[in-house]
Amino acid sequence: MKTTVSILMILLCLSPLEAHDTIKVRKQSYYAGVHFAGNTGLFSVHAGCKFFNKRLLVGAGYGYLPESVNGAEVHSILIKTSYSFSKGMVYKRAKWYAGFNTIYGITDNTFLKLPSRYPDKYYAPNAIHFSPYLGLSMPLSFYKPMWAKKANFNIELGTLDSYLWYHILNSKIGFWDVCNLSYGIYYDF
Questions:
Q1: Consecutive H or E run containing 162
Q2: What is the pLDDT of residues 95-111, one digit of tens each?
Q3: What is the DSSP letter of 100?
Q4: Rounded Cα gap, residues 59 and 65, in angstroms
Q5: Is the model's pLDDT at 9 over the cut of 70?
């Protein structure tokens, strides 16, 4: 399964075509970013492709959370997707977008398949999570590196699937208790 997903991601990023009524060859647009905090680790890096007039972003990334911050070292491998709500800009060229990450967490206490020491059906595997988020992207007009077309500052409000589930099951857990704020810089190529 991992091999199939990896091959599909590579083919998707390398493909110069977009689906329309007629086939048009377009120059592919790429992005890369560095993110701080959120559900992907204390720091994470992402890279991917933009589709449908640069409104849909699909990429892959790696996140790291050191043991000194969390009590356990966590490595994350993720697939990141987002969609810009409108082609136009909001206040002073900022854009709203929404998306989700599919996160595979690698640490000592996360499992794709539970070890035999746990009772059957008592715990659910916890290595893969879905992380929905809402974001705001603002261009950094004062900062344009020579090696990129432009740079954007992004702020994201996100959560994890399990946190939302706990919020739904327990009325004492407030919505803002299951949310987090993260930020990052993304570069277009």
A1: helix 161-169
A2: 899 999 999 999 988 88
A3: E
A4: 20
A5: no
Can you give the residue range of the structural domain that contains 61? 2-188
Query: Pairing state of beta strands 43-51 and 24-25?
Result: unpaired
Distance, in Å, from the CA atom of 52 to the CA atom of 27, rounded to the nearest integer, reads 12
Q: Residue 142: name the closest of 152, 131, 133 by CA.
A: 152
Stated pTM of the model: 0.79
- Provide the number of structural domains found in the chain: 1
Nearest Cα residue to 62 out of 81, 35, 44, 89? 44
If you write DSSP's letter for every residue of 40-78 in order, what string do you get? Answer: T-SEEEEEEEEETTTTEEEEEEEEEE-HHHHSS-EEEEE
CATH code at 85?
2.40.160.20
Residues 155, 136: contact at Cβ < 8 Å? yes
Cβ contacts of residue 183 below 8 Å, gap of 6+? 35, 36, 37, 153, 154, 155, 156
Which pair of tokens denotes residue 22? 């007629």
155-187 tens-digit pLDDT: 999 999 999 999 999 999 999 999 999 999 999
Q: Which residues pair with 24 in a beta bridge?
A: 18
The string of pLDDT tens digits covering residues 125-148 is 889 999 999 999 998 877 777 878
